[in-house]
Automatic annotation (TrEMBL):
Domain of life, per lineage: Bacteria
Region (Disordered): 1-20
Keyword set, alphabetical order: ATP-binding, Nucleotide-binding, Transport
UniProt keyword Nucleotide-binding present: yes
Gene Ontology terms, MF aspect: ATP binding; ATP hydrolysis activity
Residue ranges constituting the ABC transporter domain according to the UniProt record: 24-255
Name listed for the protein in its UniProt record: ABC transporter ATP-binding protein
Length: 336
């Protein structure tokens, strides 16, 4: 089945039917700059209504992928579909439904936050001019910039600039919101506010694509994750499934390894000896149950920690590679 897409000039072109259930999709996406392959063979699926975290170390291709999704950069090869439109040709039709915070929003340094937002709002095709003042004030309040709205953009901190960019993305109701490293420059309170806003968008059924180089941030906000490394997607899917991949285990540090193993086995909890004590399998028992069982069995416990899950382990290896390059200490790997 095929359907007709409009080009920027309005002429129809034949393209595959929009993928059902997907707000955005890329196939074989590749971007080559003169000096580097920024993105290579990226097949990304962003399910409708999901909060998808694009997770990757610096330089892994997150921003380039997002820019191609939004039609800001033309791919060297491959296809991009955004809200059922082929990009960049369908940009005029898809983009009014997409709010985006991408690197370096073009705000005017000598205008206030409010004046900058009004200029942005005037360019929103679906916002009648009589609604602009209300939409601007609502967006300013939503990102916590109401009190600083009169100040010039050039006097804003990095965090305030991020908030203004976010306000621009939220000027009108959207089907999809794309946020490139939205917590950059924000303090912990600002980070919590971004999480809250993402949660609200998700509750309203809006699809959110958010990039981050922090696993904890993706874990706190996302339903899905795509892990990028050196321009390619190395893992993709529902967050829970990826976190649970690999059998979960609890590492118990104890001088009584043999006694601990015997106690676990007496209580039908699979386990094995490790250099520091035992590893208890958590498929049949929870972590508190394992600890309680060992304590009741008279086992001395020095330390207990959860074994890294598949996603944590994968991401630790990727970021370890990155920190080695920077000459920083290696990320500690925990293995049974
Ligand atoms: N305009 C450009 N010209 C040349 N190389 C570029 C350009 N934009 C990106 N690159 C290169 O492409 C690679 C991917 O960059 P990109 O900004 O997409 O990564 P990222 O994951 O968003 O990184 P960060 O978290 O640091 O923003 C990097 O090696 C980068 O140097």
């Amino acid at each position: 089945m095929t359907t007709s897409f409009e080009t920027e000039q309005g002429a129809g072109v034949t393209a595959p039917a929009p993928a059902p259930g997907l707000a955005a999709r890329t196939r074989g996406l590749r971007k080559v700059y003169r000096s580097a392959v920024a993105v290579d063979q990226v097949d990304l699926d962003v399910p409708e209504g999901a909060v998808l975290g694009m997770l990757g170390p610096n330089g892994s291709g997150k921003t380039t992928t997002i820019r191609m999704l939004l039609g800001l950069v033309r791919p060297t090869e491959g296809e991009v579909e955004l809200l059922g439109r082929r990009m960049p040709e369908g940009a005029r039709h898809a983009l009014p439904d997409v709010g985006a915070l991408v690197e370096g929003p073009g705000f005017h340094p000598f205008l206030s936050g409010r004046e900058n937002l009004r200029r942005l709002a005037a360019a929103e095709p679906r916002l009648p001019s009589s609604d602009i003042p209300r939409a601007v004030e609502d967006a300013l309040e939503r990102v916590g910039l109401g009190a600083a709205a009169h100040r010039r953009y050039k006097a804003y901190s990095l965090g305030m600039k991020q908030r203004l960019g976010l306000a621009g993305a939220l000027l009108v109701p959207r089907r999809m919101v794309v946020l490139d490293e939205p917590t950059n420059g924000l303090d912990p309170a600002g980070t919590r506010e971004i999480r809250r806003i993402i949660g609200e968008l998700h509750a309203d059924g809006v699809t959110v694509l958010v990039s981050s180089h922090l696993l904890a941030e993706v874990e706190a906000t996302c339903t899905h994750v795509a892990v990028l490394h050196a321009g390619t997607v190395v893992a993709q899917g529902e967050l829970d499934e990826l976190l649970e991949s690999g059998s979960p285990g609890l590492l118990v540090s104890t001088p009584d390894g043999d006694k601990a193993l015997e106690t676990l086995r007496d209580n039908r909890i699979p386990g094995k000896l490790t250099p520091d004590g035992v590893r208890a399998d958590l498929t049949t028992a929870t972590a508190p149950q394992v600890v309680e069982t060992l304590v009741r069995g008279g086992v001395a416990i020095h330390e207990v920690k959860r074994e890294r899950t598949g996603l944590e382990d994968l991401f630790a290896r990727l970021t370890q590679h990155e920190t080695e390059h920077e000459g920083l200490p290696e990320v500690e790997e925990v293995r049974a």
